[in-house]
């Protein structure tokens, strides 16, 4: 009889212990990451009106779980109204560049409690059919957020589409624009690799990169090939500068974001007038993936999709040399315009 009572007591203690540990983990997850358990840091009053300067960042972090439920569609109009949630037009847009690291940048910025991301590429400004639906349609594609937060979306096609600068200017002439770039030849090969993978999935053949990048008739760089044309950053940027001053652009080094993300993210925080919140705790290197992954708190981690970081095909070294020589004067002009020199060969 005594043995049964002892066994019953041990079982009860085990259950109570599990509940206590579970409750503790839940509370830590709701409050946020351990490095965020510090005195409340108010958002600086540079986002606009509605008393945003008085809204604590930790409160925003605490409510992220609620926003996640709204993103999943588990909300009613009454709940939205009670929590003072809104769907705001973006105050910043990642406009490009394709295969420059736009998805990684967006996901990393989403670590900041004052940032809310649009999960999907909306293609409002570069798609005539979507643009014809009007600005209200665009706003309703944005995630729910608190008025004190800023919404960011990314659509890499914006950077190279001729009509986009004017369309964005008409929406908000003071919007902040983020451009993430990689070494132009590497970016062009990455662009090719993504298209090649899509062709192979459909059992279709595709030309080798060398045949597309080099004109067989002239043996010169083929500027009609889209992957090459996209990497001439200065040509596209000049079109944007007809509508926006250079001060409204921030250049992100996509190559450095892969190897050393924190300094790049801190520069973006400063550009967006966000108080510094992203720390080394939020970024950890995954040796298996070969990339940095994201740590929101002690429970929730996230790595980018497996399609990121594709292995590039081998390319003839002479073609790489020719491309780098071709891009060099455009790169120099890009450095001059933006005021940022990147270590490209």
Automatic annotation (TrEMBL):
Main localization, broad class: Golgi
Molecular-function GO term, any one: [heparan sulfate]-glucosamine 3-sulfotransferase activity
Residues in Sulfotransferase domain copies: 90-334
Annotated disulfide bonds: 293-303
Active site, renumbered: 99
The EC number(s) this enzyme carries: 2.8.2.-
Assigned protein family: Belongs to the sulfotransferase 1 family.
InterPro entries: NST/OST, P-loop_NTPase, Sulfotransferase_dom
Catalyzed reactions per annotation: alpha-D-glucosaminyl-[heparan sulfate](n) + 3'-phosphoadenylyl sulfate = 3-sulfo-alpha-D-glucosaminyl-[heparan sulfate](n) + adenosine 3',5'-bisphosphate + H(+)
Record's protein name: Sulfotransferase
Subcellular location: Golgi apparatus membrane
Domain of life the protein comes from: Eukaryota
GO biological process, one term: heparan sulfate proteoglycan biosynthetic process
